[in-house]
Every structure is written in structure tokens, then in C-alpha cells.
UniProtKB/TrEMBL annotation:
UniProt topology in membrane: Lipid-anchor
Entry keyword annotation includes Lyase: no
GO cellular component: ATP-binding cassette (ABC) transporter complex; periplasmic space
Family: Belongs to the bacterial solute-binding protein 5 family.
BP terms from Gene Ontology: peptide transport
Pfam families for the chain: SBP_bac_5 (PF00496)
Protein name in UniProt: Peptide ABC transporter substrate-binding protein
Organism: Ureibacillus massiliensis 4400831 = CIP 108448 = CCUG 49529
Chief subcellular location: membrane
Chain segments annotated as transmembrane: none
Length: 606
């Protein structure tokens, strides 16, 4: 395997190798603004991303990830599971300390701390927002619902001071990835009992076993994270302090403060992006953000619940015709849609599957490269000629059954200007290609608040942009939303897909994959199910989420890499660059990282 990326970058460019530790100051400080305030420090209760970002740096769990997305020991030195992945045993490293806000040692971290943490999360009166993840543990849901009251019946045990065992409701080969969530973090039971409802309300009412201690916590002013000198892995904590400064207009003022050298990070809004790229002094300071693992796709709704004026019954007839769906599938020009959000490099955010690349792999092969899914992953769905061919087939199929043009209700969230623009582009592009005598796309502004509950969940759309993000390291996290009782577009209601057991074909495919423990076979079955979903044009894959452009003195390829959980919020392992990456340097570094990651995954699979 090649050397780690930050060493390689030193060979590529001296600029990227220079970090604050090499400056005249002995202390490395990362400075950034924030506008969204942390409402609680109680990591066992929250599901807020802002609070995850703080908790991940203050408290360690059993595992973490390296910069290539490979699970690493954290408080657990090692672990084993039984053959069907229902029982997992973790051996804890000795000498890990809980410390107070002043850095004074309070107690050792023990196996009982993980039991106490889960007990708090699964106690319904504590209203933990991540309790649903923890119900993977045997009897976890029964305890949460009050069906049993004896926590000793829940599948977590401290076998001794340094061994914790989890027994799960069923085979869960991806359980390690679930430990990346705060609901599986430890808590010192004695301290928790002493603090009661005050736990996590101030920096004094919290214990720390992570890379940093909360040195300052002044809401709507500042918070400072200082390196924990008792941390078990302190040699890999390269930034001494993280200084967050509150500013209600953070996104507006950050670019100017970055240019003045007062902060080390700023999002660059689209409105000023041209100015930065056209300015010789600014253009080398800005780069793309790394895409997230939220994928976007257009869902075709098989259970339309919108008003009669939009002809839901006529839509239902049309959407149940595969040729009609395929005509929309191939008529959607994804590049022109993406230009509304990413005008410079739209292709970099396009995604041809529901599961994104670099999410999970099997023996070093990316899941999206498994056949038959790879046929879609590696091809472009937009094809004007095919779209028109399917249009003619649909017209023949639906003659006398549907009324043309088919009204296609396409709502959007009125609080998102980019989304509003994109719906206009999609409407014009698809109608121009397929003809207004074939489809009449109706763009409708939905509420800016409560859009999910008022529009998407009740099914008040025909054709709409939606998204999904992963919860754990298994393909099922992306296939589940389309199963019976799932989140999206009710494909189980599509006509003509029921099999002999009374279930839709897609449902049977997913259930077969879920029942398979052996990883290679499991992933193959999921790839076949996802390929079926796309091939039948139940959905049209679109993109991964990108947050635009930024100026940052952090090297994103040094960060811990995980599509789920909180580990990607850690500053551990990262160092400050003397100057930010340019977009060209970012692309070069990304290419190297992807190659190194493939090699690391292949080596792990051997």
C-alpha cells in the first residue's frame, strides 16, 4: 500500500505539506464561525448534527475509522462475533480515563460504562433521539416500550471490567458500523446519577474521554475545545485547540474574515463564487466540498394522493406502464438539472445508482461495481433517442386507457431557491424533449417548513426530487426505503410484480439479501435488487449531495472517513495547512486518496 495521503501530498506540493505546527507558534489552533447553537451537551440524547460534531471530539466509543473508511480500535482494542453475527464481544483497552472539564482524572472507562450508556438511551423517559438505532440489541425495543422493565434482560452485559458483550435481535453483520452512533457511547454511571437532569447542560456537567475537553462553553459567544492531555491516543491529536466563534451571519461574513486571516474556514456562496474564481489572489483559495453520502433521485409515486385537478387516477394508469416510466427515465437530462447548483463541475456530483460510490465494498470491489448494478453505475441514463422510442411504445400501450398529456405534479420546497430553479429547468427540458402533448409537468411550490410531513410523506406528488442518507454500513440502508412500509413512492403498489407468495418481486429480492449472512453473496443479492429497482424505472438516480465550494485550511483526506455516524466530525488525525487547497490540488489529492483507499480495502479483504 502507498504511504498515507498527507505524506504523498508533501511530495506533490510544499504548500499542502506545511501545517501550523511548523509555524512560529507552538500551538495549533483551528478557528471557525458558527451560527447554529448547541442546545445540549448530552450526547446520549441528541440527534442534532451540530451536537454530534461536538460530542465526537469529546467522547470516544468502541471503534472509529481511519481516513480510508476502515474500522479501527478505539476504546475497544479487539472484538469477535459468533458465526451468525448475533453476539459481539469487545475487549477494552486498559487505562482509558474519564476526566473533568479541568482535565482532572475522575475514573477509568470500564465495560459497565457502555451498559449504563445504553440503559439511559433505552429508558423512554430520557427521550433519546437515537434510541431507535439501539433497538438492534435484543429486547432493546421491548424495554423502550415498557414491555419489560428489567434492564438485565436487554442484550448488553459487562462480562468483567474490560469486556462488554452485545446480543442482538438477529444477525447483524454490519453491527460495528452502528457503534459509530452516540447511542452506543459510554457514560460513567456514578457521575450520571450524581448530575441527574443536569448531565450535559454545562461543560462542568460532563465527563470527557475523547481527544478534546470543552475548555470554554459560552452560548452565542464562543466555545473552545482544548486537547485532552490524558487521552489514550493523544499523539494523533495534531490540532491543539478548536475555536468556534458565534456569528448569526456566519455564512455571510466568513469569506471576508477568511481573507483577513481571522478564520480558517468559510463556505463560498454561489453569489460570490465567480468573483473568487476570477480573482488571481482568491482563485487558489477555493475548492469544492467533498460530497456527502446523501443521494438524490427522482421518485415516481405509485400511490398519488394529490388533488383531483391534477388527475391522480390518470397518473396512476400512466405510471403503471413501464414504457411510460422508461420514457421519463431516459428523458431526464441530469447535467442541465445539476447546473442549477453546481455550474462549474456538474458531472462530479452525478450519481447513477441509489447507493453512492465508496459506501461499502466486498473484497476491495466497490459495491456499485457489482453486476448487474454496475451497468447503471457506469452509464448515463439520459438518452434522448431512447426516451422518444419509449414514448411511442407508451402511447401505443396506453391508447384508450390514459388521457394525454399526462399531468405530472412536481412539487418543490419553497425554502430552497436552487430547488425552485431546478424544477423549472427539469420542466422545460423534459417537456421540450417528449412534447407537451405527452406530458404536462406542473411545478408547485410546497411549504418551506414541514415539507416532508405535508407533501412527501402523504404522497402529494407524482414525480419529485427526494433524497436518502445511510444509517449503517450495509446496502440494506439504501434498499429499505422502497420496501413495503418504506419511505418512498410505494413501488410495492406497482401492477404486475406480485409473486407466488403474494409479495412484490423487489420485496422478495431484498428479504432474500437480508437473510444472507455471507458478505459476498449478501452484497450480490442487494446489487441485483437495486439494479431491478432502477431497471424498472421506479426511480431515476440523480446525484450525491454537495455543499458547493469552500476555503479551508483542513485537508479533507486526513479526516476519519465514514458515511454514517459521528466519526467524520472528529478533528483527530487532521493538521492545519499553511494555505488552503486550490480546486486543482483538491482534485489531484482526491484521485490519490481514491487509489489509496482502493488499495487499503483490497488489503483488508485479503
Amino acid at each position: 500500500m502507498k504511504k498515507y495521503l498527507f505524506i504523498l501530498l508533501a511530495c506533490i506540493t510544499v504548500i499542502l505539506a506545511a501545517c501550523s505546527g511548523e509555524s512560529s507558534s507552538d500551538e495549533s489552533v483551528y478557528r471557525t464561525l458558527y451560527a447554529g447553537e448547541v442546545k445540549t451537551l448530552n450526547y446520549l440524547k441528541t440527534s442534532d448534527n451540530n451536537e454530534f460534531a461536538v460530542a465526537a471530539n469529546l467522547v470516544d466509543g468502541l471503534i472509529e475509522y481511519n481516513q480510508y473508511g476502515i474500522v479501527q480500535p478505539a476504546i475497544a482494542e479487539s472484538w469477535t462475533s459468533n458465526d451468525d453475527a448475533t453476539v459481539w464481544t469487545f475487549n477494552l483497552r486498559e487505562g482509558v480515563k474519564w476526566v473533568t472539564h479541568e482535565g482532572e482524572e475522575y475514573a477509568d472507562v470500564t465495560a459497565q460504562d457502555f451498559v449504563d450508556g445504553l440503559n439511559y438511551v433505552l429508558d423512554a423517559k430520557n427521550e433519546s433521539s437515537t434510541a431507535w438505532i439501539a433497538t438492534v440489541v435484543k429486547n432493546g425495543n421491548a424495554f423502550y416500550e415498557g414491555e419489560i422493565t428489567d434492564f438485565s434482560q436487554v442484550g448488553v452485559k459487562a462480562l468483567d471490567e474490560h469486556t462488554v458483550e452485545y446480543t442482538l435481535e438477529g444477525p447483524t453483520p454490519y453491527f460495528l458500523s452502528m457503534l459509530n452512533y452516540v447511542c452506543f457511547f459510554p457514560v460513567n454511571g456514578e457521575f450520571l446519577a450524581e448530575k441527574g437532569d443536569r448531565f450535559g447542560t454545562t461543560r462542568e456537567d460532563l465527563l470527557y474521554n475523547g481527544a478534546y475537553i470543552l475548555d470554554t462553553f459560552e452560548p452565542q459567544n464562543e466555545r473552545i475545545l482544548a486537547k485532552n492531555e490524558t487521552y489514550w491516543d493523544k499523539d494523533n491529536v495534531l490540532i491543539d485547540k478548536i475555536h468556534y466563534k458565534y456569528n448569526a451571519e456566519a455564512n455571510t461574513v466568513a469569506p471576508e474574515l477568511f481573507l483577513r486571516g481571522e478564520v480558517d474556514f468559510a463556505l463560498i456562496p454561489t453569489a460570490i463564487l465567480d468573483d473568487w474564481f476570477n480573482d488571481p489572489e482568491k482563485k487558489d483559495l477555493v475548492r469544492q466540498d467533498t460530497p456527502s453520502f446523501y443521494t438524490y433521485f427522482y421518485a415516481l409515486n405509485f400511490d398519488p394522493q394529490f388533488d383531483a385537478e391534477y388527475e391522480p387516477e390518470n397518473w396512476k394508469v400512466a405510471v403503471n406502464n413501464k414504457n411510460f416510466r422508461k420514457s421519463l427515465f431516459h428523458a431526464f437530462d441530469r447535467v442541465s438539472a445539476m447546473m442549477t447548483m453546481e455550474p462549474y463541475n456538474p458531472e462530479t456530483l452525478l450519481n447513477n445508482s441509489i447507493t453512492p460510490k465508496n459506501f461499502v465494498d466486498i473484497d476491495g470491489v466497490d459495491y456499485t461495481q457489482l453486476e448487474p448494478l454496475a451497468q447503471f453505475t457506469n452509464s448515463e441514463s439520459f438518452n434522448a433517442e431512447l426516451a422518444l422510442e419509449y414514448k411511442e411504445k407508451a402511447l401505443a400501450d396506453l391508447e384508450g386507457k390514459a388521457t394525454f398529456p399526462i399531468k405530472v405534479l412536481m412539487p418543490y420546497n419553497s425554502g430552497s431557491p436552487d430547488w425552485a430553479n431546478r424544477t423549472q429547468v427539469v420542466e422545460q427540458q423534459m417537456e421540450n424533449l417528449l412534447g407537451k402533448d405527452y406530458i404536462d409537468i406542473i411545478v408547485e411550490a410546497g411549504p418551506s417548513t414541514g415539507f416532508l410531513s405535508e407533501v412527501r410523506r402523504p404522497g402529494k406528488y407524482a414525480f419529485m426530487e427526494v433524497n436518502w442518507g445511510p444509517d449503517f454500513a450495509d446496502p440494506s440502508t439504501y434498499t429499505d426505503p422502497f420496501t413495503i412500509g418504506g419511505t418512498y413512492n410505494k413501488p410495492e403498489l406497482a401492477e404486475g410484480y406480485l409473486e407466488s407468495n403474494g409479495k412484490p418481486k423487489y420485496q422478495n429480492m431484498v428479504e432474500k439479501a437480508k437473510a444472507t449472512i455471507e458478505a459476498a453473496e449478501r452484497y450480490q443479492l442487494f446489487a441485483e435488487a437495486e439494479a431491478f429497482l432502477i431497471d424498472e424505472a421506479f426511480v431515476i438516480p440523480y446525484s450525491v449531495q454537495g455543499d458547493g465550494y469552500m476555503a479551508s485550511k483542513l485537508n479533507p483526506f486526513e479526516a476519519q472517513f465514514s458515511p454514517f455516524g459521528v466519526t467524520s466530525e472528529k478533528f483527530k488525525g487532521q493538521s492545519l495547512l499553511e494555505k488552503p487547497m486550490s480546486n486543482e490540488e483538491f482534485e489531484e489529492a482526491k484521485e490519490i486518496w481514491e487509489q489509496e483507499r482502493a488499495e487499503a480495502l483490497a488489503e483488508q479483504g485479503q
